[in-house]
Design brief:
By secondary structure, this protein is mainly β. 0% of the residues lie in helices and 40% in strands. It has no helices and 17 strands. The chain is globular.
């Protein structure tokens, strides 16, 4: 009999009116077909790239991104990530993701897609030193769960979109958003990234 497990996670998009970049911890629920009930899953502990199965650690960063791979939830928030296996024993459900060559710090609205074998995390915003204002990022990284390693995404040809959106088209990731031109006007930008070829190609707006 085929077992269907539904996992729902939420990363709140604000810190409840404060200036702290950390909002409430992510809430994850798992439901299994035929049981007619939901089960709360323990939340990840982002401090020092550790995982606290009881969810008693520091609050997780808000405005992160996540995907479902078919077996795991992959989550990235601020500068760290975690993997959730809903079928594992409670104490072993969350595992930290490596950070070497990873997406790095992106504390606001990154986007991500699952290609069927790799997880691409791209864009968002961060506060470079001295940290006075948010700056859009047009970089990212691709994660291979089989090897547990990250690979940086090439910058050449990447769009410079604020609050981007992304979707996987089967062989390419489409990214689109709004950017500002040299005249200070807002314009639409879009590009397609081919992870197999490792390159971007521009998609014009006509």
């Amino acid at each position: 009999m085929r077992r269907v497990v539904i996992v729902v996670c939420s990363l709140l998009a604000s810190s409840c009116g404060g200036e702290d970049e950390h909002g409430p911890p992510p809430t994850c629920l798992a439901g299994e077909e035929g049981l007619g009930r939901w089960e709360y899953l323990p939340t990840p502990h982002y401090e020092r790239n550790l995982v606290d199965p009881q969810g008693t650690g520091p609050l997780a960063p808000s405005r992160g991104t996540m995907v479902w791979t078919g077996t795991h939830v992959l989550m990235w928030g601020k500068d760290q990530g975690a993997s959730l296996d809903p079928a594992a024993a409670p104490a072993n459900r969350w595992k930290p993701l490596p950070t070497e060559n990873g997406p790095g710090e992106r504390g606001d609205s990154p986007v991500s897609v699952w290609t069927g074998s790799h997880w691409i995390v791209w864009g968002g915003e961060w506060r470079p030193p001295p940290g006075d204002e948010l700056v859009a990022r047009n970089d990212g990284a691709m994660y291979d769960p089989e090897t547990g390693t990250w690979e940086p995404i090439p910058l050449e040809g990447a769009p410079e979109a604020v609050y981007p959106r992304a979707v996987w088209l089967g062989s390419e990731m489409l990214v689109w958003g709004i950017a500002m031109n040299s005249d200070g006007d807002c314009i639409h930008q879009a590009a397609l990234f081919d992870p197999g070829a490792g390159r971007w190609r521009t998609m014009p707006f006509d």
